[in-house]
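Hi team,

As requested, here is the filled-out complex form for the zinc ion run. I kept the field names the same as last time so the parser does not choke. Let me know if anything looks off before we queue the next batch.

— J.
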Amino acid sequence: MQEDFILELALFVFVFGTLIGSFLNVVIYRVPKGESIVFPSSKCQSCQTSLKWWHNIPIFSWLFLRGKCYFCHDTISPQYPTVEFITGILFVLLYLKLGLVWYLPFVAGAFTALFALVMIDFKYMAVPDSINFIALGFALVQPTFVDALLCALMAAGGLYLVGLFSSFIAKKEAMGGADVIVAGTMGALLGFPNFFIAIFLSAILAMIPSLLNRETGVPFVPFLAMATLIVYLYDSQAGHLVEYLIYG
Ligand SMILES: [Zn+2]
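And here is what came back:
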């Protein structure tokens, strides 16, 4: 493919990603409250006025409204443009990694759902099963479906057993059911041995935040998701690392 064509397409993928990010904001805001994600249309959370279409343009609306509601001038959280921007970048990274393959939307869907889980976990220290299963469902749609399914089962089953074992040792519940489903998604996306690298990497990423917040604890899903993305994008390098560690 010609290089400038790749760039133009990357821009298109970015814009598309920000639109999905805009929808993600609705999901993050409404799903934990048990509200519909389709109806009603977006409103200002402060004055409840329905937004105009030009208040809903990803990133730009927030910028030209200077982060304030057009009607009541109350502050709009910078979380909105941030989620839109990150989703756009996420889509571009996955597009550059995979190219235009038929399963790109499904991989992007899986990571988008994981991103929603991350945001909800940060806000509520809990993750909704519905979005968790959507991530897993998307992650399984691959050319190597049977492999992905087996890897998902092994990863989820493995983590479940580790959870049982550590609950037995610590005499309290060490791992939630949500983590087991996330592990399934990771297994489907990464396969083995990269799943182990991601688990190991997430523990490293979580180490300092956990030490800083020893009292309250930190949500673990964000670190699992971050590690999954890193290992997914650098899978061949991760493979080399494993070979190096095993064979020297
Ligand atoms: Zn308002």
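Two things worth flagging: Residues 44, 46-47, 49, 69, 71-72, 74 surround zinc ion (CB under 6 Å). The chain has a mean pLDDT of 89.

Thanks,
J.
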